[in-house]
């Protein structure tokens, strides 16, 4: 299948000379899975084509944003029109107000929202806001959750409770993360103990409600309920990082999924990104008015951005949200994702490959493990060599999954039943190769 002249390889060689590791975001380098990254030439609907003009069914969709698929006509039209009207003004526009109104209508736990350019910026500022609003310093985060690469959040789990994190990255001084307490996801005992020990000093608890950065791991309803109760009891702010899950697992985001089980459930601060920008650099964070009024220019928590609320990005986000809120959109997307998930599970079962898989809305994740994991340690029990075999087997058959076993997958409205059948058939082929002989 591989062409005699691999243009991806040639591009990677060129890229390595001028860009560290050849990529502008590390996972793209295929370091975990080996082999050569595919350089994307163009994309349409559920597909992209690489430098060799090889077509792939795309289950990453820019790591989540492309919920409508690539090149959706309404999105193209809105973006082209916005571009002719001006790229960036550094002054307010009506479209920012419209997008803010649209986001708030979908996620009503927020009464005000501020638009920024990346999830990292949104997460970083949410933490600053929680600290500014409470006058406290400590933050709880969970092992395996990623909230962008702001210094204070780049913390690996310490082992066990009350171990304050060690920086995961060089260049982050230990003092910068000394207020970040890292706990095990879904571990109620650790959560209780952390609040018992540090309750009065905790500004906020940040969590991916359905974690998409250790593949796909749900917070249990009970864990979610206790996070909410303990934050309320101790005056800490519950921060939902919905950069990945926002308008992706449900129109109302993951918080609406949990609200079905916990009446009245709401986080205090919500961090959004990806889908709300439809593939353009756009993210947001929001909360109740009383919290958001701590932000400059009203309050003393500073945050700003030259390209914040960019007019082309807001046009893209706005039309994306208007498409996904059309009646039946999420039902269709969820059914499609469910049929992929059921098909993959049946294919693995048929070949006797231990496999577990879960999904919500248009997001899914699978493990080469007999049971779904509930925390990072369990996720890491996955056999990476076997994952790599599955990844490359599918890649060779024109199916593009995330190139690492700790990443989630995404289905778009553009994926057809035929795409899903092709994917399942390809997976069955690979499972057959992987099956115990
Ligand atoms: N939070 C979550 C849950 C994410 O998945 C990501 C990115 N994958 C971020 C924050 C950071 O967003 P960005 O890459 O736009 O900075």
TrEMBL record:
Residues modified as N6-(pyridoxal phosphate)lysine: 274
Pfam family, one: Aminotran_3
Cofactors demanded by this protein: pyridoxal 5'-phosphate
A GO term for molecular function: glutamate-1-semialdehyde 2,1-aminomutase activity
InterPro entries per UniProt: 4pyrrol_synth_GluAld_NH2Trfase (IPR004639), Aminotrans_3 (IPR005814), PyrdxlP-dep_Trfase (IPR015424), PyrdxlP-dep_Trfase_major (IPR015421), PyrdxlP-dep_Trfase_small (IPR015422)
Keyword Cell division: no
Localisation per UniProt entry: Cytoplasm
Enzyme Commission number(s) from the entry: 5.4.3.8
Keyword terms, alphabetized: Cytoplasm, Isomerase, Porphyrin biosynthesis, Pyridoxal phosphate
Subunit structure as annotated in this protein's UniProt entry: Homodimer.
Cited HAMAP family: HemL_aminotrans_3
NCBIfam families: hemL, PRK00062.1
Similarity remark: Belongs to the class-III pyridoxal-phosphate-dependent aminotransferase family. HemL subfamily.
Record-given protein name: Glutamate-1-semialdehyde 2,1-aminomutase
Biological source species: Ottowia thiooxydans
Gene (name only): hemL
């Amino acid at each position: 299948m591989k062409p005699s002249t691999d243009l991806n390889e040639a591009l990677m060689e060129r890229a390595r000379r001028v860009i560290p590791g050849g990529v502008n975001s590390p996972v793209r380098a295929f370091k975990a899975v080996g082999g050569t990254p595919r350089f994307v030439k163009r994309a349409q609907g559920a597909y992209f084509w690489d430098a060799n003009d090889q077509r792939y069914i795309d289950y990453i969709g820019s790591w989540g944003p492309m919920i409508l698929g690539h090149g959706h006509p309404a999105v193209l039209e809105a973006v082209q029109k916005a571009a002719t009207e001006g790229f960036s003004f550094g002054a307010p526009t009506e479209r920012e107000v419209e997008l803010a109104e649209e986001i708030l209508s979908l996620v009503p736990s927020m009464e005000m929202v501020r638009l920024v350019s990346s999830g990292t910026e949104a997460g970083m500022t949410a933490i600053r806001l929680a600290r500014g609003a409470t006058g406290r310093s400590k933050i709880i985060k969970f092992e395996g959750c990623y909230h962008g690469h702001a210094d204070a959040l780049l913390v690996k789990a310490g082992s066990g409770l009350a171990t304050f994190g060690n920086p995961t990255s060089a260049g982050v001084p230990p003092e910068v993360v000394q207020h970040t307490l890292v706990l095990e996801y879904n571990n109620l005992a650790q959560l209780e103990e952390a609040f018992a020990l540090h309750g009065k000093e905790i500004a906020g608890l940040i969590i991916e409600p359905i974690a998409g950065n250790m593949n796909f791991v749900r917070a249990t309803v009970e864990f979610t309920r206790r996070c909410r109760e303990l934050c309320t009891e101790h005056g800490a702010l519950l921060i939902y990082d919905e950069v990945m899950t926002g308008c992706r697992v449900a129109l109302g985001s993951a918080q609406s999924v949990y609200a079905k089980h916990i009446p009245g459930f709401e986080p205090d601060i919500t961090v959004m990104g990806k889908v709300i920008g439809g593939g353009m650099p756009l993210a947001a964070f929001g909360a109740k008015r009383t919290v958001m009024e701590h932000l400059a220019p009203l309050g003393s928590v500073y945050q700003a951005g030259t390209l914040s609320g960019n007019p082309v990005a807001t046009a893209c986000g706005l039309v994306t949200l208007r498409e996904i809120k059309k009646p039946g959109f999420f039902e269709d997307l969820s059914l499609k994702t469910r049929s992929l998930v059921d098909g993959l599970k049946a294919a693995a079962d048929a070949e006797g490959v231990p496999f577990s898989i879960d999904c919500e809305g248009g997001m899914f994740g699978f493990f080469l493990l007999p049971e779904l994991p509930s925390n990072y340690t369990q996720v890491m029990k996955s056999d990476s060599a076997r994952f790599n075999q599955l990844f490359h087997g599918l890649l060779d058959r024109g199916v593009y999954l995330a190139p690492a076993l700790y990443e989630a997958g995404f289905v778009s409205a553009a994926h057809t039943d035929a795409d899903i059948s092709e994917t399942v058939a390809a997976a069955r082929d690979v499972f057959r190769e992987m099956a115990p002989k």
